[in-house]
């Protein structure tokens, strides 16, 4: 199935796509979902290429697999689990069955419990031992941190609840900084861990409990837990009334829609949180119904497959011109790389093409003054994904927002157009002449013909954030199906965890001589320096 695409690539790879880009192409090579527009016209995908890409969806049965996911089939085959984060935002979509049982009543009941608790925290009906809650500390890592942390930042203009802090790293610097800024008597600690065994989270949770017990009589009274492991939360001393459970069919990096989103709900209130869920649900409906050529997640995925597996561009830059989306690249690193960073297919065969790309990025315009040099003139092509809102939330500073938008559009235009030697010579002709003019001009040439896409939306409100996150989730799903990998396990994180456990006694002083020379040498160096 890859050969046809590879052959097509040979026919377009040197063509300058700017020459194809008239208004008709701009309209045709864009997908709309609700009030969002995804423009992929600044790429070298032409109509024939798109048709071959869309064939991939049919050849790999994406539609049937999508429907299987939404209806509770156990598509996470290596863990024997359904994949149903979509049920968490299925506010009025009817029953969803797992093993013959409708999961929606429990989902909605948990949502209602979360809403009750969040409202109590926000109103002061649930208080700390020193008064109303002023600070919420979410302790979690990976999906139990990145979702709510990214979301709380993204929706900062809607934040009207207590302050929220996110502690994830086992590095004591992380928790020490946060606890220093909080009063234990008015702090709520939320321990967010699907498994309730993750060493970083459990270590930080114990540190927070010890910190709180220095000041308050009953520290457990100011703890809540978000987990699938009710027995372990109770062993930790958190009463069932403040445990918000979920099922194993919610993957960690897909979990911000349910209990793992509690800190976000406390920050923005349940009405705004529901708007976020509704945005996700709207994208689900679009993904299930829109024809492929207009289907935003499908087209985003196909552009990704084209750039990585066919054109060979190994990385993908996510560049939000929306400062509140600063943590989106980090969130997407887990979502995409933990999901599709696999080398073996569902059938146990070696993958015959590259796995998912390296995802990275920073908000614009900051990145422009850092790494865009390489994006424009480096030898590797980096497909860029821009995100931009029509308006921000600072109405009195709208002129600054306009400048931000101008920069975003300028970057995708510059990547496409570039600047040839003649234009570069004209730029410096008044300063240099002869051979020196040529030499100086060459440094000012931009190759151009570098691909980018732009996701544009009216404003980053809770509904839009829901659309964006669900869009990327479904993109990962589609890319995973095409590659034939299981996007919902993460065995690749296990080995490091095992070795860290084995190394713990050694860093605490046990003999390191059976370790490899490098590891033993590093332990010895660190010990000599205070380990
Ligand atoms: O929520 P938990 O169980 O603490 O896991 C945290 C994270 O750790 C991982 O399992 C990877 O180590 C992620 O998939 C997950 O989001």
What is the SS-derived class? Answer: alpha/beta
Corresponding CATH superfamily of the largest domain = Glucose-6-phosphate isomerase like protein, domain 1
- Ligand set: 6-O-phosphono-beta-D-fructofuranose
Which spans of ≥5 residues are poorly predicted at pLDDT below 50? none
Shape: globular
Assembly form of the protein: single chain
Overall number of structural domains: 3
Q: Could you give the count of β-strands?
A: 15
Q: What is the average of the pLDDT values?
A: 97
State the helical fraction.
Answer: 40-55%
Q: How would a crystallographer describe the biggest sheet?
A: 6 strands, mixed
Helix count from the secondary structure assignment: 20
Q: Report the portion of residues in β strands.
A: 5-15%
State the end-to-end CA separation: 54 Å
Any idea what the radius of gyration is?
Answer: 25 Å
CATH architecture of the largest domain: 3-Layer(aba) Sandwich
| CATH level-3 fold name of the largest domain | Rossmann fold
